[in-house]
Every structure is written in C-alpha cells, then in structure tokens.
Amino acid sequence: MTEIAPKAIGIENVDQRDVWGPFDIIGDVHGCAGELETLLARLGYDVRWSGTPGAVSVRVTPPIGRRAILVGDLVDRGPRSPDVLRIVMSMVESGAALAVPGNHDAKFSRWLDGKDVAATHGLDRTIAQFEAETKAFCKSVREFFGSLPNYLWLEGGRLAVAHAGIKDSMLGRNSGEVRRFCLYGETDGETDEFGLPIRYHWAAEYRGQTAIVYGHTPVPTAGWVNNTLCIDTGCVFGGKLSALRWPEREIVAVAAERVYTVPVRPFGHPPLRPGAQA
User: Fold this and answer.
1) How far is CA 102 from the centre of its chain?
2) DSSP 239
3) CA-to-CA distance for 217 and 42, rounded, in angstroms?
4) What is the pTM of this model?
5) Band of residue 9 on the pLDDT scale cut at 50, 70, 90
6) 140: Cβ–Cβ under 8 A, 6 or more apart, which residues?
C-alpha cells in the first residue's frame, strides 16, 4: 500500500490539562465490536449504523456532557476490527471520544504503511478482515492512527490515560522514550516462559498524584493500585470489556460473547521489576 506520512505529534497534543470530563474510559477492545456496542449502550451512548455493504457508516451520540476515551489496542485477535475502527473514528471525529494508540494499533499502522512486520499476535486476523475494505478506508485508518497522541494528560493534571501506562516523571514530555513506555510499558527486551515480552509492574512503584488509567496487560477485574487502574479485563480472551466512569470511579463491564483467542499468559498484573520495592 502507499505509505502515508503520519501527522506530527507535539507536546500540545498530550498536554490537554484544560480538557475536563466526565469521561468513560474504555479498555482494550481488540476487534470486539459487538461488546463495544453493548458497553457503549450500557453507558448511555446511542450507536446507529447506516448505509449498505461496502458503504457503511456509524454515528454515536454520547450522553449529554460525557465523552469516551479509548485506551488503545482497537485491533487484532477479535472478529470485527474494521467495525471497531469505524465506531471509534466516528466518535473521535464528532468529539464524542478521545483515543490513544496501543502497541497493536502501532503495528497494524506500520503494516498499512507497507512495512515488513510479522503477522503474529492477531495481526493476521486484522489483515484478513481488511482485505474486503476499500483503499480509502485504509487510508483514513492510517491517518487516524497517525493523529493520536501518545497519551492524554487531562483535568488540570488530575488524570492521565496511556495504553500501557506512564510514569509520573514522563507527564508533560513527549519523546521516543515516552512513546515506547506508553505503548509497551516497562520491559527489558527479554521474553518469558510463554515466549512473550517480559513486562514489569510499574504501577506497584507509582507514587504520583495524577490518576493513571491504562490497559495492555489483561487483569481479571479492574482495581486501583497506587492511584493507577488497569482497565483491560481481557474481552477478546473471553473476559470482560470494562469502562471506568470518571470522576465517579465506577466500573461498568460487559461479558465477552465468547473466547475469540485463547490466552497464552494467565490474566494478572506482571511481576515487579528486579530490585524494585512495591
């Protein structure tokens, strides 16, 4: 495919401390469009599809005064990644949502650019689903991913949203190091006994005043750890799709319709970084 230059991401995109909620922060969707529609409806959003096959569109109307935030990993592993993107892109365009990219989104974006990437960890399903999509839609998806900030720093600094998390010292910064942490969390380049990249439980060491909401590592139930919340509850693996209602701090979740991908690694927070103190 033709390479599309991504939109430049500057510090002004991540520093949105003048933007206030209330928000509905939604965990990793991974192509589970049916569960996303169900969760949005439970949160009070009205999802309306229109058009014909090949020219379908969607309009999402939020509850008055509320806005959704998607924590990334919109694609891969699930059955309807294109429809998830249609929903989220429509919401962002209309102002009904904000979003940050996940590592799966970044990898799929590189594939759309024509880069040589391994079609693993569910990317093969997304590629197969996009075979039926138009070049125009693929172009709009690439432009959408290129427009997303690495993270969001909101509400006067009270709240931050990043796919895999962010350290307090990184807030207000926007560099390659910060982007890597936001996409992948704390890693050391090694793999575990499951053949997956080793992740460390950065949140166990967090002491910041900003509440951090993130996804990336599926946990059985969303729960607060040191003013951080992992909202990924493994929908695509047969768990739940969860949302945090902010500032109410209420969790709203819907059960997965089925197991779309068998998990390789058990749900749960990763281990502490060697030498770290919780």
Assistant:
1) 5
2) S
3) 24
4) 0.93
5) very low
6) 89
